[in-house]
């Protein structure tokens, strides 16, 4: 792998959805998530990271160093156990924490406790641990990792309208249902969508935390690629038409950063061109970046 990243990054992800449900709330009948006070739509950071994980899993196909820890049907403690087994550590009496873990100094592992060795192995094997971090103390303790990439909820630029549609399936599941309907055999259902919405999520990448997980320049490039293309490989009738429209990256020349994130984010405006017309396409919006008096040691990258 290449060296870990040396620069701080702040970024905005602008995406839209048409006639779909971007992130249903299971506690509200899978209705699209909405800020009750403003009417703006919400998409959780967990939802966005899931799509990144799926993209990496699809494109890398379990390439060594790019496996995914949090994936469908995974049994996490088994994966943690595997890291210990791969290191040749006896799991009959696993360490409870870093302090009581035995010191190790095997060739190629360096000196550290068993927990530290297992954590380093997990970071090396799993892309999402290097990127987002993980809690790995649920079984054979491999510690906790705070990832260099942090994401906010995505929030729609304008309030969204939640629609509920009745749908019909021309079939039933059981003979009892068919008898009850005298052979009509219909099943009624509901589908929730919003007609259109543009969402903005904010993200932050710390080189200090990247050094702890081994998050590299190659990992970063894969992450940018995932943000741009993840919706292309996550199609569903329930999600309608979703697409990344803009990825705006602020690259600092230093590890600590050269400007406040909120000041950089304020330079990006996503505005509705005609406030009297309900938006139904991304062309109804305008995205502007104020580059006036931008610090010379901050580079703007648009994808």
Describe this structure in words.
The protein is of the alpha+beta class and 303 residues long. It has one domain. It has 8 helices and 16 strands. It has helices at 45-60, 76-86, 114-125, 127-132, 175-180, 207-213, 217-229, 261-265; strands at residues 9-20, 24-25, 31-32, 40-43, 103-104, 112-113, 133-135, 144-146, 149-151, 154-159, 163-169, 187-205, 241-252, 268-272, 285-289, 298-302. The strands form 5 sheets. Strands 1, 4, 9, 10, 11, 12, 13 and 16 form an 8-stranded antiparallel sheet that branches. Strands 2-3 form a two-stranded antiparallel sheet. Strands 5-6 form a two-stranded antiparallel ribbon. Strand 2 (24-25) and strand 3 (31-32) form a beta hairpin. Helix 1 crosses helix 7. The two termini are 24 Å apart.
């Amino acid at each position: 792998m290449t060296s870990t990243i040396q620069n701080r990054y702040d970024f905005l992800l602008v995406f839209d959805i048409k006639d779909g449900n971007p992130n249903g709330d299971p506690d509200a009948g899978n209705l699209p998530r909405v800020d009750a006070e403003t009417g703006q739509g919400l998409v959780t950071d967990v939802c966005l990271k899931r799509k990144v994980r799926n993209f990496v899993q699809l494109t890398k196909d379990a390439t060594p160093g790019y496996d995914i820890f949090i994936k469908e049907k995974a049994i996490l403690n088994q994966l943690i156990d595997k890291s210990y087994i791969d290191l040749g550590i006896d799991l009959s009496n696993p360490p409870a924490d870093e302090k009581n873990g035995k010191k190790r100094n095997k060739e190629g592992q360096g000196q550290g406790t068993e927990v530290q060795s297992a954590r380093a192995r997990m970071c090396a094997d799993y892309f999402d641990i290097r990127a987002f971090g993980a809690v790995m103390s649920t079984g054979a303790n491999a510690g906790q990792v705070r990832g260099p990439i942090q994401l906010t909820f995505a929030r729609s630029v304008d309030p969204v309208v939640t629609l509920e549609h009745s749908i019909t399936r021309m079939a039933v599941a059981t003979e009892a249902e068919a008898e009850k309907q005298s052979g009509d055999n219909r099943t009624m259902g509901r589908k929730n969508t919003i007609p259109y919405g543009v969402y903005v999520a904010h993200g932050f990448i710390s080189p200090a935390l990247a050094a702890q997980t081994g998050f590299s320049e190659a990992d970063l490039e894969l992450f940018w690629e995932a943000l741009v293309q993840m919706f292309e490989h996550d199609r569903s009738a329930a999600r309608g038409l979703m697409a990344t429209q803009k990825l705006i990256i602020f690259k600092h020349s230093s590890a600590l950063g050269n400007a406040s994130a909120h000041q950089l984010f304020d330079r990006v405006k996503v505005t509705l061109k005609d406030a009297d017309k309900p938006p139904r396409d991304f062309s109804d919006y305008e995205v502007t970046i104020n580059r006036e008096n931008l610090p010379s040691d901050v580079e703007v990258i648009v994808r």
